[in-house]
Amino acid sequence: MSNRRTFAIISHPDAGKTTLTEKLLLQGGAIHLAGEVKARGAARRARSDWMKIEQQRGISVTSSVMTFERDGVTFNLLDTPGHEDFSEDTYRTLTAVDSAIMVIDAAKGIEPQTRKLFEVCRLRSVPIITFVNKVDREGRSVFETLDEVADALALDVCPMAWPIGMGGEFKGVLDFATNQISRPEGDSREFLGKREGAEDIPADIAEEIELAQAGYPAFDIEAYRNGDLTPVYFGSALKNFGVAELIEAIAKYAPPPRPQPSDAGVINPDGKEVTGFIFKVQANMDPMHRDRIAFMRLVSGTFKRGMKLTPSGSGKPIAIHSPILFFAQDREIADNAEPGDIIGIPNHGTLRVGDTLSETNKVRFTGLPNFAPEILRRVALKDPTKTKQLRKALDDLSEEGVIQVFYPEIGAQWIVGVVGQLQLEVLISRLEAEYKVEAVLEASPFDTARWLRGSDAALKAFADFNLSNLAKDRDGDPVFMARSSWDVGYQQEKNPELVFSATKER
């Protein structure tokens, strides 16, 4: 298992994450052509973006998994949504990785979404390698970028390389470890790095390098793996420059599979029992077959095809006959898998996000919460005869984590909740494309929701006075639908015996 590297790429939209993903796959030999992708002009999309709305809008709105091998190391790359409206799916993906690459645009530095995703990594002490992208374009000074990472994210930074000039003056990247410069050669669309000695660095750059090596801490692998220090690399994903060094860094420094928290204590990857957890469910990846794939992160033991595992949700053992390894849209049957690997399990709604799978059913992995929705809308059908199809679609999509669905105790119209506006567009698009259901979203009288916990008596007493503000989620758990945050505070004060929770552990 020590040769597994399971990592995610996080960034603000437009920092170059999708391009970097493609170039990592190219360098790793998983694809043989940049744009295999087979695309034209502006429609060029990386293979990890397969959903219709992603292709139309040119953004990633779901998380994909891509596995490739290079020099004896198996890389499991989880491509996370970069769009600011997809924090919930991104959060769950980050629970399944052991490290992350943070992509920063050399001209823009740290943007709001980068900071938000970084905070999620920090919650789980996920170690981060920073890749400063687009150094072949005009950007800010390298010191300014490094100091911003250090100050804004409260991390030690350690430059592992240094760009020789930027923009029109860009002449390559000096690798501190080898003291060699990768110089760009090739046409304007793609550089091929030629490594040579660092004899003729301009005086001003030489001075910068001396300052950087004296002023920033040396690389410390323990500090990096504890999430306290980030090594920084420079390059251009579009020009395929600096990408090989990035893969080498992941292979050399990124941690192998890490222990995972559970209700039975920490589960180590070298444990004998096969255990794992579902961090994502995706329906209709292949629209021709109406499939449903649960993505499982293997935590311990050696998984073998055909073995029986018990999901914590149902408690009934299931035999896993067709486990899948992914390369974006391509897949192959996995005969076995090791800790750190991500496998897809085809199922018909038996597996859900947050389920633990194990041989004995004695362990539950923790830390995959639902978040209180920030936007609530009523769903209205254009064709009232399609109520059954709508219910099925909403259940499916809430199971995937695209939306949350609430069924009011009074009133017939169902309410969907999301953490970002774009998810509503995804909902309408997928209802139409995959379920042939046309619906519109209408304003809801509610502003947010809180899960209720307490004794049966306290819950009943609360319901007697607040039935019009109560709903059930898809699990049948009680939810207080609040008209404002003031409403939440008021009810908490009036009902101290109840817990009004903004998150719900899966």
Automatic annotation (TrEMBL):
It is found in: Cytoplasm. The keyword Amino-acid biosynthesis does not apply. InterPro entries: EF-G-like_DII, EFG_III/V, G_TR_CS, P-loop_NTPase, PrfC, RF3_C, RF3_dom_3_sf, RF3_GTP-bd. The keyword Nucleotide-binding applies. It comes from the Bacteria. SUPFAM superfamilies: EF-G C-terminal domain-like (SSF54980), P-loop containing nucleoside triphosphate hydrolases (SSF52540), Translation proteins (SSF50447). GTP binds at residues 11-18, 79-83, 133-136. PROSITE patterns: G_TR_1, G_TR_2. Residues 2-258 form the Tr-type G domain. GO terms for biological process: regulation of translational termination. Keywords: Cytoplasm, GTP-binding, Nucleotide-binding, Protein biosynthesis. PANTHER family: PEPTIDE CHAIN RELEASE FACTOR RF3 (PTHR43556:SF2). Belongs to the TRAFAC class translation factor GTPase superfamily. Classic translation factor GTPase family. PrfC subfamily. Increases the formation of ribosomal termination complexes and stimulates activities of RF-1 and RF-2. It binds guanine nucleotides and has strong preference for UGA stop codons. It may interact directly with the ribosome. The stimulation of RF-1 and RF-2 is significantly reduced by GTP and GDP, but not by GMP. This is Peptide chain release factor 3. It comes from Novosphingobium ginsenosidimutans.
